[in-house]
Specification:
Elements lengths: L1 E8 L4 H12 L4 E7 L4 E6 L6 H12 L5 E3 L12 H20 L13 H12 L5 H15 L5 H28 L4 H23 L14 H9 L8 H8 L6 H10 L5 H24 L10 H26 L10
Antiparallel strand pairs: 1-3, 1-4, 2-3
Helix pairs in contact: 1-5, 3-12, 4-11, 6-9, 6-11, 7-10, 7-12, 10-11
Length: 339
């Protein structure tokens, strides 16, 4: 066994850490793999015989290439493309303007500290499915697809996976809603949870901009041991594996999912909590289905920088508007907007 240290290209969040460690750690030559988001490094304890370090890096890269990562001896050099904000800024403002219009019409309700409608949860799900923090879910889909493709069964497992995901988000979301109602959250508790959701969304938005590396350390995630167990389900070769993998996605480290889970505590009941998480899962469904049956990869597109910056600005604007309105509701600051 030898100890190797490599650089990882393409890491964005804690989802990337879990996915890379799982994929690399599954190789028969590897005893242990540990990734670090702070410095984009990968430490591997493995036995690759007399193969040189460059050759080992090439093997490891082949293992994670389909997920958008590369293992290298060289540090990743990234340019902060501030020029992309020239396009991302106007796009974000137009999107927020459209959203405010829809809120005025009563179709959605994300701004103002009020209740999040099912339409809003759906839109948050769409944004989440297109973000880098859903990489681990896409990786689980691809891993499971490879497992069952070897047996010539490609379509049925995918259908079962997505069915399991939709059903589990409704049921587990309902459980969270019921727990929240059992504790009869006070208005102060509901306010604090709303502030927490806004802060989580703000951190997610800053990370999507991909210009402030320090923000990655602030992004919350599920404990690693839970995420690893959830991701490990996809490696089982059993009839129930796709369904269990769909359930496991509820526990994977996606900040958008966790922010919706926190909000669901305030919904006050099983049905409303279940429908909120169901709407969120439905929003993520189109992109995950495309990942299942195609080689879709927004991250590898030459327009990905503009897209992620636009999405990041939208999320940041929503988070700030909600923080301002929530503080105005309890009288800490005067009302600034009337949404």
């Amino acid at each position: 066994m030898k100890n190797y240290t490599f650089n990882v290209h393409g890491m964005h969040c804690n989802s990337c850490v879990i996915l890379i460690e799982s994929k690399i750690g599954s190789l028969p030559e590897v005893k242990e793999a540990k990734s670090n988001l702070k410095n984009h490094s990968l430490e591997v304890t493995a036995d690759f015989g007399d193969l040189g370090k460059a050759g080992v890096a090439e093997i490891l890269t082949r293992t994670v290439k389909e997920n958008g990562y590369a293992i290298s001896l060289e540090e990743e050099t990234t340019e902060k493309s501030w020029s992309e904000f020239k396009i991302a800024g106007p796009v974000a403002i137009l999107f927020v303007g459209l959203f405010v219009l829809l809120q005025k019409l009563g179709i959605v309700h994300l701004i103002g500290g009020g209740n999040v409608t099912y339409g809003t949860a759906l839109l948050v799900g769409i944004v989440a499915s297109l973000s880098t923090c859903m990489a681990v879910v896409g990786g689980l889909v691809l891993s499971m697809s490879a497992t069952f493709a070897k047996e010539g069964d490609k379509i049925k497992p995918q259908i079962i996976f997505h069915a399991g995901r939709i059903i589990s988000f409704f049921v587990l979301g309902g459980v969270i809603g019921a727990i929240g109602s059992a504790f009869t959250l006070s208005s102060t508790s509901a306010f604090l949870l709303g502030i927490l959701v806004a802060i989580i969304m703000l951190i997610l938005g800053i990370n999507l901009l991909d210009v402030f590396p320090w923000a990655k350390k602030l992004q919350p995630s599920m404990p690693k041991f839970i995420s690893r167990r959830a991701l490990g389900v996809s490696k089982l070769n059993h009839t129930l594996t796709p369904f269990l993998a769909g359930i496991a996605t509820f526990f994977l480290p996606c900040g958008f999912t966790q922010s919706m889970q926190v909000y669901t505590l305030t919904t006050g009941g099983f049905l409303k909590g279940g429908l909120t998480m169901l709407s969120f899962a439905a929003g993520t469904l189109p992109v995950l289905v495309l990942i299942s049956f195609s080689s879709l990869s927004i991250k590898s597109s030459n327009k990905s920088g503009v897209f992620f910056k636009s999405a990041g600005l939208v999320v940041i604007i929503f988070a700030l508007l909600n923080l301002i309105n929530a503080l105005a509701v309890i009288g800490l600051i005067p009302p600034l907007f009337n949404f």
